[in-house]
Design goal:
Elements: E1 46-53, E2 56-71, E3 74-85, E4 88-99, E5 105-115, E6 121-123, E7 128-129, E8 136-141, E9 150-152, E10 154-155, E11 163-170, E12 176-182, E13 190-196, E14 200-208, E15 213-220
Antiparallel strand pairs: 1-2, 1-15, 2-3, 3-4, 4-5, 5-6, 5-7, 5-8, 8-10, 9-11, 11-12, 12-13, 13-14, 14-15
């Protein structure tokens, strides 16, 4: 994808100041029908990305299910994510997203598990759900991404404290955006993502504090 080449022009110097907690709309204003063009979640769609993680070949499969669940009164779309390292399933995650009346995509939690090579669970660190043990939702993708704006993506103290900032647009028609992501739980790490309008995430990579990369290879949409 030609737009990926533009990432080299984006400088590393994104500020890592914490974003303010977003104001949560009433539960009645949320829908599990997530159609924000920067992060569309059409049920039945399958995204496959490949790259490297922890020095091993990585393959990530994200599936937007037809299932919904209600969290803190808000209907959420259930998304399943599976990470394979050297062909072996090493992480399984269930994510919960919802969209408000303005078109902002909110992240209401995740249930994640790291697995050893034999499939046994070794850690569930990073799991959280809105309303449980003080966990709060965050904005995953604003309706109108604006360069320079920062957002808190999730919050459960000591477990889930991701933030992101929109740092650039790419393409002649600005059909792609670049974000920098960080967490105070890993102060030496800075990640970046590229989102393409109408598709979603097409590239993830670590800019500082690691060597991880995942590039979207295919999108399979449900038959209509």
């Amino acid at each position: 994808m030609a737009v990926l080449g533009g990432l080299a022009a984006v400088m590393l110097g994104a500020g890592a100041a914490p974003a303010a907690p977003p104001k949560l709309p009433p539960a009645s204003e949320f829908t599990a029908h997530v159609d924000n063009p920067w992060f569309p979640l059409e049920p039945g769609t399958r995204y496959v990305s490949v790259g490297v993680k922890d020095g091993e070949p990585a393959r990530d499969v994200m599936t937007v299910t037809h299932r919904t669940t209600t969290i803190a009164g808000a209907p959420c779309r259930v998304v399943e994510d599976r990470l394979y390292l050297s062909g072996v399933l090493r992480e399984r995650t269930t994510d919960w997203y919802t969209q408000d009346a303005r078109g902002n995509v909110w992240y209401f939690g995740e249930q994640t598990a790291e697995l050893d090579k034999h499939g046994a669970v070794t850690s569930t660190s990073g799991s959280w759900k809105t309303g449980v043990h003080g966990a709060q939702p965050g904005i995953f993708m604003p309706a109108q991404p604006t360069v320079g704006r920062s957002y808190r993506q999730e919050f459960l103290r000591g477990q889930a404290e991701d933030h992101f900032k929109i740092v650039a647009t790419l393409g002649a028609v600005k059909n792609a955006i670049v974000t920098h992501e960080w967490t105070p739980l890993e102060p030496g790490t800075l990640d970046s993502k590229i989102y393409v309008r109408g598709i979603g995430t097409v590239l993830e990579l670590t800019l500082k504090g690691g060597n991880e990369r995942a590039e979207l290879m295919s999108v399979t949409r449900a038959r209509r």
